[in-house]
């Protein structure tokens, strides 16, 4: 596919950013059940605020999704030099750190994960009955193979995608000055996130039958856990394509920088600016560095002390762990355990 935008200077100002980071700092005690509560939510553009006022239940679900983005991103990249630390900046900061503000591959991942998470959370909320304007997803027309039948409550992915994209893409669709290349990048990566979500809709079944014979299975279409979707997007992050704007008539396209003979693929993350190595602290580049980060001495992956510490070396320390041990099952029906202590050696980067 080609990504196009009107021809105009590309770097007039930074695009207004996705509100996921700001919304993740909304007070946990705040329950959005009155229209005036929408004014208390930071980082939203006018169309998002309007959506909030017209659908308060949906807004509460989106706030939940924003918190989930932060948590899932940090878990997914816990073994990398860049570990989503940018999302941890104070809520009153005016914008992301530069690693998410310059069109880097980290920005690509965050936008894709944000879009997927918002739609995922909405789809699941329909299934659980938390949203009155939607219910279970539709039953597929195609009948499963013999021994299977449709039933249960499917995740309402269609509603999740429609309402999620309406909220997620609003800042990039506003007619205001900004980097159109950045807007196109964010719109594309958000759609990659939703495409990954579509691929994560799988058939789930429950067995029925005498003595667990599973002679009949009741099935429904359900989404995989967000953690699995995030890992899929992490794979796309690692193979993301650097793009550049190219003029075509009165519009511009984003095309692969090194292989611009082909268009950008619909399922690949794209980025405009190269990332720093994140080894040392650099505020201008948005790098917090890896000093004092925990590393794995025996690993050969990205969490290894050699890679995580960027060759600076590491310091060992010991930690006492208290664990359950010598557990014994008692009929019927409880388990008793003892507590055991053990000393483990940890390592942190210099």
From TrEMBL:
Source superkingdom: Eukaryota
Main localisation: secreted
Keywords from the UniProt entry: Developmental protein, Disulfide bond, Extracellular matrix, Glycoprotein, Lipoprotein, Secreted, Signal, Wnt signaling pathway
UniProt xrefs under PROSITE patterns: WNT1 (PS00246)
Matches recorded under Pfam families: wnt
Any single Gene Ontology cellular-component annotation: extracellular space
CDD domains: Wnt_Wnt11
Keyword Lipoprotein: yes
Biological process annotations from GO: animal organ development; canonical Wnt signaling pathway; cell fate commitment; neuron differentiation
Single GO MF annotation: frizzled binding
Transmembrane parts of this sequence: none
Places the protein is found: Secreted, Extracellular space, Extracellular matrix
Family stated for the protein in its record: Belongs to the Wnt family.
PANTHER family, alphabetized: PROTEIN WNT-11 (PTHR12027:SF7), WNT RELATED (PTHR12027)
Known role: Ligand for members of the frizzled family of seven transmembrane receptors.
Protein name from the UniProt record: Protein Wnt
């Amino acid at each position: 596919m080609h990504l196009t935008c009107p021809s105009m200077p590309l770097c007039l100002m930074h695009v207004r950013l996705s509100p996921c980071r700001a919304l993740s700092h909304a007070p946990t005690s705040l329950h959005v059940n009155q229209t005036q509560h929408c004014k208390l939510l930071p980082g939203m553009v006018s169309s998002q605020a309007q959506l909030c006022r017209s659908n308060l239940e949906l807004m509460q679900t989106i706030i939940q999704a924003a918190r989930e983005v932060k948590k899932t991103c940090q878990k997914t990249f816990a073994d990398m030099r860049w570990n989503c630390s940018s999302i941890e900046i104070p809520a009153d900061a005016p914008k992301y750190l530069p690693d998410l503000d310059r069109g880097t591959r980290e920005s690509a991942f965050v936008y894709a994960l944000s879009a997927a998470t918002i739609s995922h959370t909405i789809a699941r909320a329909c299934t659980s009955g938390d949203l009155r304007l939607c219910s279970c997803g539709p039953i597929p027309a195609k009948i499963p193979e013999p021994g299977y039948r449709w039933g249960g409550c499917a995740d309402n992915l269609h509603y999740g995608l429609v309402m999620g994209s309406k909220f997620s893409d609003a800042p990039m669709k506003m007619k205001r000055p900004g980097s159109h290349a950045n807007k196109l990048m964010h719109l594309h990566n958000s759609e990659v996130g939703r495409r990954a979500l579509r691929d994560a809709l799988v058939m789930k079944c429950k067995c029925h039958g005498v003595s667990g014979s599973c002679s009949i299975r009741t099935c429904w279409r359900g989404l995989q856990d967000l953690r699995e979707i995030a890992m899929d997007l992490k794979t796309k992050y690692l193979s993301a394509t650097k793009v550049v704007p190219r003029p075509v008539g009165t519009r511009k396209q984003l095309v692969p920088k090194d292989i611009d003979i082909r268009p950008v693929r619909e399922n690949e993350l794209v980025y405009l600016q190269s990332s720093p190595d994140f080894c040392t602290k650099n505020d201008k580049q948005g790098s917090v560095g890896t000093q004092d980060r925990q590393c794995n001495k025996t690993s050969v992956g990205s969490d290894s002390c050699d890679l995580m510490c960027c060759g600076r070396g590491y310091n060992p320390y010991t930690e006492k762990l208290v664990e359950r041990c010598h557990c014994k099952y008692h009929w019927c029906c409880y388990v008793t355990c003892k507590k055991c202590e053990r000393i483990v050696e940890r390592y942190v980067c210099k």
